[in-house]
């Protein structure tokens, strides 16, 4: 059987409202989730279970207890896995969840059924399995697929500070915030931006107390002409929308001058490459 390659695109919480807390401590979310045309890549080959990690962010990760191996174990399958780690680790764009979901998709192409309760690997794994725009509720397991979003030029920026998700949830002041307003069908970028202006990322204030540099990243995105800027997930990665791909490219180059990771891409790209 030939090797199977799966893209693991970065997840973006365009809006993320925290609406309550379950008895087990997990938070209730209401989030508009989208995916960007940048991500990790997972390759699976037949063989005993193993993991090799390469790519620009490989050094930040251990092969022990990696989500790729946990995903294969949950599926009860063996494979020689290679992970190309292009996304910063612990950065709010779902890297580990996207990798786990990519392993599960790859294994299913190799004949191993998707396991039940993939959310046990991480709250973001269910939404990353489809890697399509969705409204995400519950603790992450209730998904409503959405039509494609407008293809907006965007920049992702990460200042190189790992922000552990549990610390951000623990630092929140208010956990009973209002749900998202109804999600309309967005005719174009201006519609989506206007709708987002009436929403929030409820984790942003808490993440700012842990990593104040996030405030500098948001200011810098706006200073480079972003029409809209927000943090994704529990941070520290932030995204900005731009009027044209050229403006996004120029902004990404300027943001890299701070020593930050920055890429210009499009929201809602064509289906993830294989
Ligand atoms: C913040 C988000 O990225 C938004 O998409 C996700 O909710 C987090 O997804 P994730 O990193 O896959 O999360 P997990 O690995 O399942 O959980 C990490 C930690 O985040 C907290 N957590 C996560 C999800 C959730 N709905 N409520 C929580 O309180 C818990 O402390 C948990 O121990
Ligand atoms: N393949 C993986 N990629 C990234 N992190 C992994 C992986 N496997 C295990 N981890 C661990 O999971 C932790 C969370 O990493 P991840 O990059 O998924 O966070 P995140 O981007 O904040 O995700 P989210 O947006 O889902 O909260 C890291 O601290 C890391 O040690």
UniProtKB/TrEMBL annotation:
Record pathway: Isoprenoid biosynthesis; isopentenyl diphosphate biosynthesis via DXP pathway; isopentenyl diphosphate from 1-deoxy-D-xylulose 5-phosphate: step 3/6
Residues of the GHMP kinase N-terminal domain: 70-116
Residues at the active site: 11, 124
Chain segments annotated as coiled-coil in the UniProt record: none
Domain GHMP kinase C-terminal intervals: 200-258
A Pfam family annotated for this UniProt entry: GHMP_kinases_N
Annotated function: Catalyzes the phosphorylation of the position 2 hydroxy group of 4-diphosphocytidyl-2C-methyl-D-erythritol.
Family classification: Belongs to the GHMP kinase family. IspE subfamily.
Protein name, per record: 4-diphosphocytidyl-2-C-methyl-D-erythritol kinase
Lineage: Bacteria, Pseudomonadati, Pseudomonadota, Alphaproteobacteria, Rhodobacterales
Originating gene: ispE
